[in-house]
Fold this sequence. Notes:
By secondary structure, this protein is an alpha+beta fold. It contains 15 helices and eleven strands.
Amino acid sequence: MSDSDPxxxxxxxxxPSPNLYYPYSNLGEGRAHLLPSKPCRPRTSRLSSxxxxxxxxxxxxxxxxxxxxxxxxxxxxxxSSLPRRLYQPSPSQTPWEKLKRPLLESRSLEELPCGxxxxxxxxxxxxxxxxxxxxxxxxFQDLGSPQEVYKVLRACQLDSLLCIGNRLGTLLSGPWPxxxxxxxxxxxxxxxxxxxxxxxxxxxxxxxxxDTWHLLAAKVPKPWSMTLEPLDAEPPxxxxxxxxxxxxxxxxxxxxxxxxxxxGAPWQGPVALVAEVPSQTVAxxxxxxxxxxxxxxxxxxxxxCLLLLQLCGALxxxxxxxxxxxxLRPENLLLASPRGQPTGALPQLLLTNFARTRxxxxxxxxREDELQLGLLIYEMLGHGPALAQAxxxxxxxxxxxxxxxxxxxxxxxxxxxxxxxxRPAMAQVRVALQTILWGPGPEYQTQGLPLEPxxxxxxxxxxxxxxxxxxxxxxxxxxxxxxCCQYLTEASPHMVGWALExxxxxxxxxxx
Length: 512
């Protein structure tokens, strides 16, 4: 099984345990004492009569039962080699941010979140199926205690999901094509655009560098490419887009196609090159799936939730950098086929057109993107833009055709609040969409059951499902599986509980 396989096993290896100490002695001196001396050269032993080995060095091991905050592990969810822009967090934190990063001071090891105890013992990721039996005692404090065994296995399950998620992200993102070199050549594949968004046309282009080639897309801005005067001007928002952090759902720039490189190209002047080759916009996708919406509303509305989830992931990172997109329309959202996925699989949504991107004020968030997201949900569920201009209680009701549209109707009510402070933050909306897709449902909330066991159960069952699917020759893990891995590895009972209250309860959604 190749390394690119998201479910490939770790090679079997015997790992030395740092807690094992062996008695030692000076073998050289011992052998010299046992060998007979030569007749011509009498040997005088420098050894004393006491042949016992020297005493072992005494080492005092200090053990603590609390975890300092500055040694908490943080996992990264980036899957691209693009340069990152430094991010300075806001000095003020909203209650939602405090829920995402609970304080860990003076918490016992039994209360630590699973997968966060590797600083105080053997790394759970080293515990594999091939671990020798005599090493199990170094991972489990008491093998006779089911609670102790379960605590370590919880950490192993979470680490396994993190590994699967990282490999799936690398597989779906593919190798970044880079910015090319001086010996690169280009070839235009089609004379017609492969996709048309609200601000640009996209043409398929092959870039050839020595013995490799990459399929890219030439991004030809509409207003800028139709006139002769501004050929040397840069399209609005392009410079900002080049400084954004890499994200799976943010269109990535990978260089420029100089003017005159492709004779006969249907554009003038230099154009930008993007790594993802789009096939359509969300507006095109809505039009093409109208029949599916009527015949199989549940299937269509689930795909709507998956596309919205990808959009919220990109917007959440944008908001972390104190930036607001400000132009969320179906014609500005591109769809592309993820690398290595079959035709007809869930498309990759790409956030583009940053001409109206503005800085956000941390003290008073405008929540304009959240409002536009509510309007976008209206359009994706069949309402035109004119019907979605109403706000709050006066907004037209969404047609309920499945459980997904019922949950989205509850979410839209919050997103279209007239007061910006009453709208949920994009990070909250993202967790709410994850909860709509993978649970727990409202019936779980009404029973008053705890959320931590629910997370533990599904963290254990998802790898089993992926393994059974792979062993049975079924469909390989794809984009939806990766999104589900992200949910189960990032979610906490606090976050899921907040999302359930947002969808089905009456919890205030203001960030202040």
